[in-house]
Amino acid sequence: MRKFLKGKALFSAVTVVSMLALAACGGQSSAPAQDGKGTGQEQAAAGEPKDGGVLKIGLSSTAKTLDPIAYTGAYESNIIRSIGDTLVRYSGDLSKIEPSLATEWKVSDDMKVYTFKLRDNVYFQPGKYQDGRKMTAEDVKYSLERSSKQSALKRLRGVQSVEVISENEVALHLEQPNAALLAMLTDGGNIVVPREEVEGWGDQFGQHLIGTGPFQMDKFNQDDSVALKRADKYWGPKPHLDGVEFKFITDANMMTNALRSGDIDVVTDVKGQNRAVIEKDQNLNLQTKPGLSIEYMGLNQNEGPTKDKKVREAIRMAVDVEGLVKGVFKWGGAEKSYLPLPKASWGYDSSLEASVPAFDPQKAKQLLAEGGYPDGFKTELYVIASRVPQATIAAQQLKDNLNIDAEIKTVEWGTFSDVVAKGKAPLYIMGWSWYPDPDFFLYQMFHSKQIGSLGNGYGYNNPEVDKLLDRATAETTDEAKRKEMYGQVMKMINDDVVHVELGLLDVATGMKKYVEDYQVRADSSIFLVNEETNVWLNK
Amino acid sequence: MLRLILRRLVDLIPTLLVVATTVFIITRMIPGDPAAVLLGPQASPDEIAKMRESLGLNQPMYLQYIDFLGSLLQGDLGTSLGYHQPVLSLILERFPNTLLLSVCALAIALLIGIPAGIISATKQYSAWDYTVMILSLVGVSMPIFWLGVMLVLYFSVHLGWLPATGMGSLSEGFGSVITHLVLPSIALSTIPMATFARITRSSMLEVIRQDYIKTARAKGLREFFVVWKHALKNAMTPLLTVMGMQISSMLGGAVLTETIFSWPGMGRLVVDAIENRDFVVVQGTVLFIAVIFVLINLLVDILYTVVNPRVNLSNKGEG
């Protein structure tokens, strides 16, 4: 296995070089990619949308089950989103929550009851155990209670019960006031499904998912692809596409080859040198935008030298983040991150960027001496294999600038999560990505209740921060007020020096130029048809 | 013969028990908590603990082992952690795909490798011989993952003749499966092809110098019959051994080929299961592969007696 993985690394290097060479030989001198801009212009030039065709999308992992309560990966939820609908969803730019199966909603004064009014014209896709009947409030109750009680990943937390108020009205009763509930409801795990199908199929439901979305399941080819066809009774705009096929191609270079050869029309998750290959090809477009994933170095707050704030400040100042990001992402795909929150979140406050100290090795050295380690010290830096480049550069910088010997401990995921969650890692580099609501970043990573979880693996405990984080979800649903509280939280965290923020990662999608109206979203989710977008093929 | 087969099948039981035990221990030794891997970074320790409980990972090891063997006796390989489906059905769904790929690759390897080796042997030290030997050396040494990508770059990306990845489906017509099959089978066939050519050559060289071949030639038999009928049959024994080994490893899942070409076979299932710590699938597939290995070896042993009647398997081990 190890030999195989080593081979894989060598293979990646060799093949990408070959691909670049072949691309260069082809003499395809094309204009640079649009980087997410200019798509509007192209849209205008593209003319009237045409109906027909099947869009083939490459996913980088194999979807194993599409059962909303059992799925584990983002790639699976992207298929789920084409088949089913949630009550509400994020707008394309993630700035606000919009109606989907629910047309409107209200929150009780104590923020413990959310009442949703349901759309009246929603039908399930026909399946083996029902013939495409109308969706009811009972279905919403069934699906959300199923998610809240049975989902291994708890995609709906803190819901006590779901009450059917009338034929088209349901109320969610929460255990505690929660302003971030709607964000959770946008998760693919919370789509509405018909009970007959779930119970009829049992364990097989994951391969025979039925929902209310624009496309319905046609064929689930294990480990190969999932084919969907247009759902006739979809409540939203009629899809231009006849169908969608999600193909699983786990090798990144082969994924790019498949796009170039025309096997697929869209590749998700484009990284490294494959960005350059796609940019060079005149038949392809690379669309990128800053995503919802951040990377950071966690600094242990309770053990070892980093217990001392001066040492933590020294480390933060001794890491040249810009240099690190450029070194790791030579082909683009990330930018320097300043805050423990991605820019695509509405809670992001760019005015705070200035308060993050700049790279200053001299001052760092001085701070480390003040902290009692003028000659540096020995420590350990935990990472998983995919983040070894980040760790190598960071460790080198710590050695050069502070004489800190950080031994890189490369461990696999299970060990990493165990060591970090137990607070045993002195330093570690990891990434975080979740819903755009700041609660899913800041609460998870900085509330003292999360000590013992991977999110707060450094054991950060600041009662003031706890209080603000609690208030931000319990006091109001007003985004402006919440944003202010999260701003204060980030300021305190910055002062306490908990992280060294590293990269803010891009979402990059490559596609054939004939794919029109394909929305690349910061949360990597794929919506092919809704009020904002309706993908079509211009060929 | 029948008794022999039965005896060998009975011998399978202790072998499988050893394999099962080894696999059980190894999968438990892979570092990392399957529950944590399964649930991802956002899971709380509470959720991970619950998942461990539901997977039965909190039970003492010996109880887990007894459970595992008990289910195994009933033919139950367990339920996959990721797919939420019985492992046996996951395997049986993918095995035909692997079989199809292996048979095609094997056919290519045999049809080209053996004749090339024979001609090499009969024309020793000729330009043909040198060419075949150099090519076969290249073939044996060429990494499949490199060759696979080169084939795709040329035939799929550059010429646009063949699909790059996937298996196609019969519903799109028979042609869809065939076109998808070409590149992976060529990639998978190179190493066995080169091995067959080399083994055939050396084995033939030994045989064609023997007296009975001289006799055959002296009788005035045509060279074609001398080589293809008299010599080849006796040169087959070492070739069969190698062939058995090659087939067994291909059927166990051509890991690299299947991964590169996104071929939905056993190899991909295993790799994916290892990466995701789906130890139930790892256990099940390794056991299945072990059974295949033993059965193919048995088949090869039987074929020995057909090719060379002097081999008497029932006396094997008794003197």
Give the helix tally of chain A. Answer: 16
From the alpha carbons, calculate the radius of gyration of chain A and give it in angstroms.
24 Å
Q: Residue ranges of chain A: pLDDT <50 for 5 or more in a row? A: 1-17, 19-44
Please give the share of residues in helix of chain A.
25-40%
What Rg of chain B is obtained from the alpha carbons, in whole angstroms? 24 Å
Structural class of chain B: mainly alpha
* Main sheet attributes: strand count, strand direction, barrel closure of chain A: 11 strands, mixed
The separation of the N and C termini of chain A measures 43 Å
| First and last CA, distance of chain B | 18 Å
The greatest interface between two protein chains, and residues involved on each side, is: A-B, 62 and 57 residues
Order of helices and strands of chain B: HHHHHHHHHHHHH
What does the overall shape of chain A look like? globular
| Largest β sheet strand count, sense and barrel closure of chain B | none
- Secondary structure: number of strands of chain B: 0
Fraction of residues in β-strands of chain A: 15-25%
Number of helices of chain B: 13
**Overall form of chain B:** globular
Mean pLDDT of chain A, rounded to whole units? 89
Low-confidence runs of at least 5 consecutive residues of chain B:
none
Count of DSSP strands of chain A: 19
Written account of the structure:
The complex is a heterodimer of chains A (539) and B (319). Chain A is an alpha+beta fold. Chain A has 16 helices and 19 strands. In chain A, the strands form four sheets. In chain A, strands 1, 8, 9, 10, 11, 12, 13, 14, 15, 16 and 17 form an eleven-stranded mixed β-sheet that branches. A four-stranded antiparallel β-sheet of chain A has the order 4-5-7-6, covered by helices on one side. The radius of gyration of chain A is 24 Å and the shape is globular. Chain A starts with a helix and ends with a strand. In chain A, 53% of the residues are buried. The N terminus of chain A is likely disordered. Chain B has 319 residues and is mainly alpha-helical. Chain B contains 13 helices and no strands. In chain B, helix 5 crosses helix 8 and helix 8 packs across helix 10. The longest helix of chain B is centred in the N-terminal third of the chain and has 36 residues. Chain B is globular. The chains are: A alpha+beta (539), B mainly alpha (319). At the A-B interface, helix 1, helix 7, helix 13 and strand 16 of A face helix 2, helix 3, helix 5, helix 7 and helix 11 of B.
